[in-house]
Design goal:
Layout: E1 11-14, H1 23-37, H2 40-44, H3 48-67, H4 73-87, H5 93-106, H6 117-124, E2 129-134, H7 138-147, E3 156-159, H8 160-163, H9 170-180, E4 187-191, H10 194-203, E5 207-211, H11 223-226, E6 231-233, H12 239-247
Parallel strand pairs: 1-2, 1-4, 2-3, 4-5, 5-6
The structure holds magnesium ion.
């Protein structure tokens, strides 16, 4: 593997959820275990697959509202499980709140990482300053990084809730840059959200790598043309392949 550095890049900012920390797997593990604990399948005739599918849909909508400042963190948390139960015909406020409390307590302690995470961090660490730039809640994101054993790789952990801005706001990229004491052209963002990670970083004058670990198609097939330094790592590739991309300076 080549050991050349990407020309000009000194700082690599990683997104956390769905990019390094396997959000899907960790979240599903906790939900499945809670449904068994509270006997939800037998009591309400809801399979864990149906529950998870509905929960994800509701959670995604609520996160969208939260990120556009339409609801608060507390509203998001107090409604996603109760709404899921409601929609599945199992109205039970008490159980919904219980599931939420347990989910918050347990999910950050899950340690599944996306394939190749440790390899890429080990490879990049001696060559670049690595940072985390994540949209999320402080009490949760710090635990995830610590418990999964990857915190040691990062110089700085930037969490939207602590910074007062969220990706894709330009302000969060500018603020991270200021703390890291770097210029925009020295920064690259790697993340799985086209809107938050890629468009946000590009607006701030950074370079970006769109990493999609999930099997989803991107409508825009011309990412190379948007910016010379933007590449798309396909769903058929994993983080190890991304390491090779960077090592070979295909950016
Ligand atoms: Mg993400």
């Amino acid at each position: 593997m080549s050991t050349k550095k990407i020309v000009g890049i000194k700082h690599i900012f990683f997104d956390l959820d769905h990019t390094l920390w396997d959000f899907e797997k960790n979240s599903e593990t906790v939900i499945e275990s809670m449904l068994v604990t509270y006997d939800v399948e037998r009591l309400y005739k809801i399979t864990s697959a149906d529950f998870i599918k509905k929960y994800k849909k509701i959670n995604k909508k609520l996160w969208h509202l939260y990120s556009h400042k339409k609801i608060t963190k507390e509203e998001l948390r107090s409604t996603r499980f109760t709404k899921t139960l409601d929609r599945l015909g199992a109205k039970n406020l008490e159980l919904g709140l219980l599931l939420e409390r347990e989910y918050i307590a347990k999910s950050p302690y899950q340690t599944h990482l996306l394939e190749g995470t440790n390899e890429i961090l080990d490879y990049l660490k001696p060559k670049y300053e690595l940072h985390i730039l994540t949209n999320g809640f402080k009490e949760v994101q710090h635990i995830k990084l610590h418990e999964s054993g990857i915190k040691k790789h990062f110089n700085t952990i930037f969490i939207s809730e602590e910074m007062g801005f969220q990706k894709p706001d330009k302000e969060i990229f500018d603020a991270a840059q200021k703390v890291a004491k770097v210029n925009a052209e020295e920064c690259i963002m790697i993340g799985d959200s086209f809107e938050n990670d890629i468009q946000g970083a590009l607006k701030a004058g950074w370079r970006a790598v769109y990493f999609s670990s999930r099997k989803k198609r991107v409508k825009n097939e011309n990412l190379y043309q948007i910016n010379n330094f933007l590449i798309r790592v396909d769903c058929s590739l994993n983080l190890s392949a991304l390491t090779h991309f960077i090592a070979q300076q295909k950016i």
